[in-house]
Design a protein that fits this description.
Helix content is 25%, strand content 25%. With 452 residues, the chain is of the alpha/beta class. A 9-stranded mixed sheet has the order 6-5-7-8-4-9-10-11-12, with helices on both faces. Strands 13-14-16-15 form a 4-stranded mixed sheet. The chain has a 3-stranded antiparallel sheet with strand order 2-1-3, with no helix packed on it. Mean pLDDT is 86; it is low at 48-53. The structure holds thymidine-5'-diphosphate and magnesium ion.
């Protein structure tokens, strides 16, 4: 019998050690190194079988490489297509990460049921019956989607050989195990091995593979960081579990931009694509309430109207509270300091709460002006007009700074029926004859006249 071989892996970064040590020298984390069994037997299964034999590749000059655009597989899900950069690239590996219960399995099952291609959905987490129950809620009739409950990669490849699917979905990479490695499923060496087997399969047969990955408590995809380097695309499915909206973002994309965003709404019958997010993010209240302001932001190539809510009240305790949901708390403190120093508002003894509605978080600096407007409106208890919106950054000296792609924001606001948009005086705007009034501001003090 072969000698049992063990290796030590850092569970944080995946670095390999020959003996145990307390601290990982690579990522400096303590107590993350664990022993794992790695015993490789000869790989003589599917990988060397004649029909999947290696295509020896030769070096070519760039001009000789076929530059015809790769045909992408259309998933019939506009949001998913957009985030991927226009559909699934043949032979690509995509990793979808997200909190438990956020809807990763639902999203991919739903896409499998919609796809006009032969799809194999491999689940190591749920039984075929459970998947059937879920599928019935979503879209019960589809003949091109096959469900397999299996966790051993060798068995999966055997099934793939007979079924020959056009696309393979694995739920989840942490449940898979390969015979070539002896450690348990979900361990670093198993994840690495299973992923490289899948990559090999994907590249050799040009079949795209989508993997679901669990995330750790601090939000990283469980397993070695190297996993994210190995795959072509890393998608993150996020959103507050208690909210109905879910946001799909690309963290890494070898075939497209990472600034695209897909929005879904979780319903009783699966996830619904939200193609016009602004309509949902801005609540349709009849009455005007103080502390609400609307920001014209941009995520990816899309403009989004986002509602900012602020509540300013006299502090009950000595130290005033500052809390922000969906917005950087440090930036909130900075804006409060600017208001105090430049515009003379006494906010030092007030509690300030800030919330971006819809459970999303934004890092577009153009939201600053809406935050300032919401705070002032709540502080004065005067409602802003419902058809005002804001798009500008606020600098430390209280200046209203220009933002990128202001014209796109203005046009979106106009389309949604806003009457006035507040932007920086220093933005160059060449739009003419807009139905929306473009109000130019240069300092925060200029805004006060519109509120009080
Ligand atoms: P799930 O896809 O199992 O999450 P993950 O795979 O990321 O762990 O998501 C399950 C949640 O979605 C669960 O809380 C129930 C909810 N859900 C709906 O609201 N509507 C539906 O049609 C389905 C299938 C699930
Ligand atoms: Mg799941």
């Amino acid at each position: 019998m072969a000698k049992v071989k063990t290796t030590f892996f850092c569970q944080g970064c995946g670095t390999q050690y020959s003996k145990w040590q307390g601290q990982c020298t690579a990522c400096k984390e303590w107590n993350t190194i664990v022993e794992e069994l790695v015993q490789k037997t000869d790989k003589n299964d599917w990988q060397t079988s004649p029909n999947t034999s290696k295509r020896a590749s030769k070096p070519l000059q760039l001009k000789d490489i076929d530059s015809a655009k790769e045909a992408r597989l259309d998933t019939l899900d506009a949001e998913f297509n957009r985030v991927l950069g226009g559909g699934i690239v043949p032979g690509s590996l995509t990793l979808l990460g997200g909190e438990p219960g956020i809807g990763k399995s639902t999203l991919l099952l739903q896409i499998s049921l919609k796809l006009p291609y032969k799809t194999l959905y491999v689940s190591g987490e749920e039984s075929q019956k459970q998947i059937k129950m879920r599928a019935e809620r979503i879209n019960p009739d589809n003949d091109s989607c096959y469900i397999l409950t299996e966790t051993k990669t060798q068995n999966i490849f055997k099934q793939i050989e007979t079924l020959e699917p056009d696309i393979v979905i694995i739920d989840s990479i942490q449940t898979l195990h390969s015979d070539y490695i002896e450690s348990s499923s979900g361990s670093i060496s198993q994840i690495k091995e299973c992923t490289s087997e899948l990559i090999k399969f994907a590249k050799e047969t040009a079949t795209p593979v989508i993997l679901i990955g669990h995330i750790t408590k601090d939000g990283h995809i469980a397993g070695p960081k190297i996993l994210e380097h190995m795959v072509d695309t890393v998608l993150q499915f996020e959103g507050d579990r208690n909210h109905v909206f879910r946001i799909l973002r690309a963290q890494k994309n070898r075939f497209g931009s990472t600034s695209e965003l897909g929005i879904y709404e979780m319903q009783g019958s699966g996830l619904r694509e939200v193609s016009n997010p602004s309509e949902i993010l801005v609540s349709k209240k009849e009455e005007e309430l103080s502390g609400n302001a609307i920001a014209a932001t941009i995520e990816g190539i899309r403009s989004l109207m986002i509602e900012v809510q602020a509540l300013v009240s006299t502090a009950v305790y000595g130290t005033p509270q500052r809390s922000a949901t969906g917005f950087n708390a440090k930036r909130l403190n900075m804006l409060l300091a600017v208001l105090e120093k430049r515009a003379g508002f006494r906010l030092g003894a007030k509690d300030v709460f800030l919330n971006i509605t819809g459970g999303i978080s934004v890092d577009d600096p153009a939201i600053d002006l809406a935050v300032v407007a919401a705070i002032l409106s709540s502080n004065e208890d005067v409602a802003l007009q419902r058809d005002f919106c804001f798009a500008a950054e606020v600098g430390l000296s209280g200046e209203i700074r220009p933002v990128q792609r202001v014209e796109q924001r203005i046009l979106e606001a106009e389309k949604l029926g806003f009457s006035t948009i507040f932007v920086s005086k220093y933005n160059t705007i060449s739009l003419k004859d807009t139905a929306i009034k473009i109000q130019l501001l240069s300092k925060v003090e200029d805004l006060i006249g519109f509120i009080v």
